[in-house]
Amino acid sequence: MTRVTLIPGDGIGPEVTAVMKDVVAATGVKIEWEVQEAGMHVFERVGELVPASVYESIERNRIALKGPITTPIGKGFRSINVALRKKYDLFACVRPVKSIGVVSSKFSNVDLTIFRENTEDLYMGLEEEVSPDEMRSIKVITRANSRRICVAAFEYALLHQRPKVTVVTKANIMKLSDGLFLDVARDVAKDYPTIKLQEILVDNMCMQLVVKPETFDVIVTENLYGDILSDLCAGLVGGLGFVPGANLGKDMAIFEAVHGSAPDIAGKGIANPTALILTSAMMLRHLGHTKEAAWIEEAVDTVYRDPANFTVDLGGSLGSTAIGLKIIQAMDELKGNAYGQKTVG
Ligand code: NAI
Ligand code: MG
């Protein structure tokens, strides 16, 4: 039995986490979830967003699945999400964006993966007040961190037989910082002669993505651009309820969907758990449960081929629990087929 730290988080976190757990259980893979509370409700109780026990659990298990945690805007805490990625050097934020069923009427062939550098850029929180009327944020881009995210993207492209890696920067304006990231990408690309390197500036990339997203394979970019492009790409495939993600380091991984705590819909039972369910499939694959991961992904695709199964965020009527049950049902049918083939073969 594999032990995984489970942080339900706050907002819609606990709702989508509960459904995700049921789906994972239905695959038959035995996961021992070590549940750790973190988020606003914990802060109100103990004065800390993330108690020490959460860190201890992650460090013990080296693998975690996390729901969203609210970060108050403006003054106050730094984002706990950013802090976790930095603390454990989870340098690669990997986000596969794929068309699911008939969810999007605009695009049906999107199949791209974003590699977002996760530890530096403007997210280091190096801000200073020059005067009450002038604030500065310092952007940090280093050769070593740029290199490892570019290598991760090219390795992924090679493994998944994707012909192209697109590097996204604004190197025409930030000639030193983004210039360095682009230089490193060009250098890394030389080691992968079978994969094409495409260079695009971030503003043009936004336009290309909303016009012809199906032309992209693997995208590698800095932290801020990766954050923004992730949400943009989510919009191409049905919204934030559909995009999973992983934060990967050398020997530790924290899996989490792209979306946040969605306070506008929290507690209503209508949050879409699909993103977190697909995130659990990424985790199962990471743990070597390839077949079960594929079951989940196939079941999700099957369910969303029928608009009668659409969730509230898609304009349908299914809430969090109902869509979870549909996915489990579809998976049971797939498993049945798989067993059937086994018997026949
Ligand atoms: P958000 O992702 O929480 O929500 C944006 C919009 O998408 C909202 O209208 C929301 O209702 C909708 N949405 C998001 N996930 C959904 C789902 N699963 N099903 C249906 N609809 C969904 O982004 P927002 O509002 O900017 O941030 C809210 C809070 O979450 C902030 O405190 C932010 O800092 C935090 N956050 C945390 C993240 C994390 O823990 N990894 C990531 C992003 C934001
Ligand atoms: Mg984000």
What features would you describe in this structure?
By secondary structure, the protein is of the alpha/beta class. The chain is 42% helix and 17% strand. The chain folds into two domains: 1-103 and 238-345, Isopropylmalate Dehydrogenase; 124-236, Rossmann fold (3-Layer(aba) Sandwich), CATH 3.40.50. Strands 2-1-3-12-11-4-5-10-8-9 form a ten-stranded mixed sheet, sandwiched between helices. A hairpin with a 2-residue loop joins strand 6 (127-131) and strand 7. The longest helix is centred in the last third of the chain and has 25 residues, at 320-344. It is globular. Bound molecules: 1,4-dihydronicotinamide adenine dinucleotide and magnesium ion. 1,4-dihydronicotinamide adenine dinucleotide (NAI) is lined by residues 12, 16, 68-71, 81, 240-241, 256, 259-265, 271-272, 275, 313.
What characterizes the major β-sheet?
Answer: 10 strands, mixed
Per CATH, the class of the largest domain reads: Alpha Beta
Q: Helicity range of the residues?
A: 40-55%
Would you identify the regions where 5 or more consecutive residues have pLDDT less than 50?
Answer: none
CATH superfamily of the largest domain: Isopropylmalate Dehydrogenase
Number of strands: 12
Element order, helices and strands? EHEHHEHEEEEHEHEHEHEEHHH
> Number of DSSP helices?
11
Q: Give the name of the CATH architecture of the largest domain.
A: 3-Layer(aba) Sandwich
CATH topology of the largest domain: Isopropylmalate Dehydrogenase
> Are any ligands bound, and if so which?
1,4-dihydronicotinamide adenine dinucleotide, magnesium ion
Strand order of the largest sheet: 2-1-3-12-11-4-5-10-8-9
Give the termini separation.
29 Å
Count of domains: 2
Mean pLDDT level: 94
Structural class by sheet pairing and helices? alpha/beta
